[in-house]
Description:
- The protein is α/β, with parallel strands linked by helices.
- The chain is built from 7 helices and 6 strands; from the N terminus they run αββαβαβαβαβαα.
- Helix 4 links the parallel strand 4 and strand 5.
- The radius of gyration is 20 Å and the shape is globular.
- The protein starts with a helix and ends with a helix.
Amino acid sequence: xxxxxxxxxxxxxxxxxxxxxxxxxxxxxxxxxxxxxxxxxxxxxxxxxxxxxxxxxxxxxxxxxxxxxxxxxxxxxxxxxxxxxxxxxxxxxxxxxxxxxxxxxxxxxxxxxxxxxxxxxxxxxxxxxxxxxxxxxxxxxxxxxxxxxxxxxxxxxxxxxxxxxxxxxxxxxxxxxxxxxxxxxxxxxxxx
Length: 192
């Protein structure tokens, strides 16, 4: 059994722990081709918009991950049409790797001061993120801080045993943020 099959979901539609889900783009994985990935993204975006508009049941909340201005505007309009609360789920400071050059900084500044104002609320993972977004959202925007959690059952499915000491790293391996140095330091502390 490969790591991908242990950790990845390959079902396009189904129920997980009692919650129905559907990948409206028709696939659970991205194409290797950049052009094909863009086509997949547009297909998924419009299929998602169509399914929300056509939903027979009441739509209470649209939970959106990301903040690309065109799609934020699209889903803001749909949320208003469906009388749903529009919430952004955000897990890190935006534009971490886009602050290069004056053009990148101007884009990041404009985007940060415009896109987040379309949301009725934010779900963030820490108080620093709450403080960062507080000044970039509407004054009446609601905030929910949800600490980072790891579903330990994913590691049991991978064959890790509770009878041995396991050190698990959940993070990026680049040095753009937390990365290899963090991983090396963690292993160093664990073997002392």
